[in-house]
Write a structure and sequence with these properties.
Elements lengths: L6 H13 L2 H8 L3 H15 L4 E4 L2 E4 L1 H24 L6 E8 L4 H14 L3 E8 L1 H9 L5 E6 L7 E7 L2 E5 L10 E5 L5 H12 L4 E6 L3 H9 L5 E3 L8 E4 L11 E6 L9 H16 L3 H4 L8
Parallel strand pairs: 3-4, 3-5, 8-9
Antiparallel strand pairs: 1-2, 5-12, 6-12, 7-10, 7-11
Helix pairs in contact: 1-2, 1-3, 1-4, 2-3, 5-9
């Protein structure tokens, strides 16, 4: 017999996880703390797993809780979108959006600008920064909605995810791929692109040096175009003044990167639902990944 996961239990679970406690979740959902506790026990019975642990006042999700969180955010996003379709409400207001400077920033800016032109009653505040900084701002409630590059183990507040494989590129007329050590162009130390480049070169026992470092994707693009070195980029960020290097050139295939859309469910303004769906649709097209595949939990690191 099929087991159904009630959306009210999932909403309470995500609210508890995002706000860090039963009492604060109850205040948002207009329920008592004992009622929230009963809901969490019921949800654990349905999935036959412990979802939450307590360390003093600190609440943590178990491994099972992390996995269910990924499913729950997707289910609730679809539920809220379906309800909004049949029972539209006034969703004017301000939504603070974080876009990554280390992934297709111009493409994402164009997508947001197009949405703003078609929806003049929505007030958008856009912040562009490195993915790690954007996620920190989301955690601190300074941003409502974030698109960011994420490491495999990062899934808190993750609603939707994609994968894309970066490629090696140099300037169109550059001979940098023949230099030893290889001059690399990229972002700072914890950048996901940089990790993939150095891991791939280590696998071939090849030497490299960091020839140019910039927090901004346009700085990386310019440095490659003028011949300062080679880098890894997704195809959405390639320019006509670059050429792709592959295994025939002696460069191994790079590991895929993960792009995620994040927001805190209980703090997400009503005005954010449409822009979230708009960004999902645009990144689906950019990464050429079908919607149902991008929703698969394996994409979320479960």
């Amino acid at each position: 017999m099929a087991i159904n996961l009630p959306t009210d239990l999932l909403r309470s679970f995500i609210t508890v996880a995002d706000l860090g406690g039963y009492t604060r979740a109850g205040e948002v959902l207009n329920r008592s703390q004992p009622a929230i506790s009963l809901q969490m026990r019921r949800l654990e019975e349905l999935v036959d797993a412990q979802l939450i642990t307590h360390d003093g006042r600190q609440l943590n999700l178990t491994e099972a809780g992390e996995i269910l969180s990924a499913y729950a955010r997707q289910i609730l996003h679809l539920n809220d979108d379906a309800i909004a379709h049949f029972r539209p409400t006034d969703i004017s207001g301000t939504i603070r959006i974080g876009l990554p400077t280390d992934y297709a920033v111009s493409y994402l800016q164009d997508a947001v600008a197009h949405f703003a032109l078609e929806n003049p009653d929505r007030n958008l505040e856009i912040c562009c920064d490195l993915s790690a900084n954007l996620l920190n701002s989301l955690h601190g409630n300074q941003i409502d909605l974030v698109v960011a590059l994420v490491a495999e183990d990062k899934k808190q507040y993750l609603v939707h995810a994609w994968e894309e494989r970066p490629v090696w590129v140099v300037g169109k007329n550059s001979k940098a791929d023949k230099e030893v050590p290889l001059p690399l162009v990229g972002h700072f130390e914890n950048c996901e692109y940089r990790k993939r480049m150095t891991a791939a070169l280590k696998s071939q026992d090849r030497q490299w040096r960091h020839a140019y470092t910039s927090p901004d994707i346009s700085g990386v693009q310019d440095a490659v175009e003028i011949g300062l070195g080679l880098t890894a980029l997704t195809r959405a960020t390639l320019t006509n003044d670059m050429r792709v290097l592959d295994e025939a050139d002696g460069f191994p295939e790079l590991e895929k990167i993960r792009i995620g859309l994040f927001y805190k469910l209980p703090r997400m303004p009503e005005a954010g639902r449409e822009i979230a769906n708009h960004l999902i649709d645009n990144i689906d097209r950019a990464t050429n990944v079908h919607f149902t595949r991008s929703m698969h939990p394996q994409m979320i690191g479960s």
